[in-house]
Design goal:
The protein is α/β, with parallel strands linked by helices. Helices cover 37% and strands 20% of the residues. The protein has helices spanning 3-46, 75-81, 95-103, 172-189, 227-244, 270-276, 289-296; strands at 65-68, 108-116, 120-127, 130-134, 141-144, 149-151, 162-164, 198-200, 208-213, 216-221, 248-252, 260-263. It starts with a helix and ends with a helix.
């Protein structure tokens, strides 16, 4: 066999052995890295230094679970989301799953959940901002501009108007549409929204405002736009309108040049009511016989 052929075969064999050795080295290296990773993961899972500590006393929150932004949200509802994480490593905490669970709480608009190594969890909440009460019997429910319903906290007090037509019996799509229009009205009226006792949003193209005025409840038909201007027009004309039409109870503000007033013929205006009240009969004091005698003799 020629020498060149032997040298070529030896060279090819050497290259093959080199490749095999390199592959083996890579495999061994990857195995070592995998082993380190498994050991590190096991360490993070099992070492007590990474555990989210339970409450030391019954009724107290876990010391290493930090909750910010909680005002009206029920703290117990938030703690329940992390109940299964207590007493185990924060490494096992599923951040996305916990965030979604927090978003399921009615008062929570947004939430952020973070690990703070080695053994803490941070929760930041953004709560919904109620703009009105929902008109319904025997239940205090609040609603925000996006149509989300929230139970009113017992300890909190809100001075907000009542809105009809946005209760739980209304579909979410329709409730959102109505509340967006209501929110625009509330923002347009500004501080004057305090005058309003009820907003009827059942017709999204014609919102109705109900407010007290001179001893009666009057209804304003506001349409679907220019709420601030139309309410100011009503306030400017209210005294004159009631002077000319004392039985006025509904005021259609949708026309730019005029106000259409609906009257209640059974309503007695306050001034006429005062005149119509029967006068109290005068009471005369009866004189005794001795008094008559003294008066007769000029004493």
């Amino acid at each position: 066999m020629p020498k060149k052929t032997i040298d070529a075969e030896a060279s090819g064999l050497g290259q093959l052995i080199g490749r095999i050795a390199m592959v083996c080295g890579v495999v061994v290296g990857l195995g070592a890295l995998l082993l380190v990773e498994v050991q590190a993961e096991s360490f993070l899972k099992r070492d007590a230094r990474f555990f989210l500590e339970r409450s030391k006393e019954f009724g107290e929150p876990p010391p290493n679970l930090q909750i910010d932004g909680l005002v009206h949200t029920d703290r117990e509802q938030v703690l329940k989301v992390f109940e299964e994480d207590l007493g185990r490593s924060v490494y096992l905490l599923d951040l996305d799953k916990r965030r979604l669970a927090l978003l399921g709480i009615p008062w929570v608009a947004d939430a952020t959940v973070s690990r703070l190594w080695p053994d803490r969890v941070s929760v930041r909440l953004v709560e919904r901002k109620p703009v009105a009460f929902v008109k319904q019997a025997n239940r205090a429910t609040l609603i925000d501009a996006q149509g989300f319903l929230m139970e009113a906290p017992v300890s909190a007090q809100f001075r907000l108007p009542v809105v009809a037509g946005v209760g739980p019996d209304v579909t979410e799509t329709l409730r959102l549409e109505r509340m967006q229009r209501v929110d625009k009205l509330i923002r347009d009226l500004g501080p004057r929204i305090a005058d309003i006792s009820e907003i009827d949003a059942q017709d999204v193209h014609n919102l109705l405002l109900i407010r007290p005025l001179k001893g009666r409840a009057v209804t304003l038909k506001m349409g679907s736009k220019n709420f601030g201007e139309r309410y100011k027009t009503f306030l400017d004309l209210a005294d004159d309108l009631l002077e000319r039409l004392p039985n006025g109870v509904t005021f259609d503000m949708r026309l730019e040049e005029q106000v259409i007033v609906g009257e209640d013929p059974t309503l007695t205006p306050p001034a006429l009511e005062a005149e119509a009240k029967p006068k109290k009969p005068e009471t005369k004091r009866s004189e005794s016989r001795s008094e008559k005698k003294r008066r007769k003799h000029g004493r």
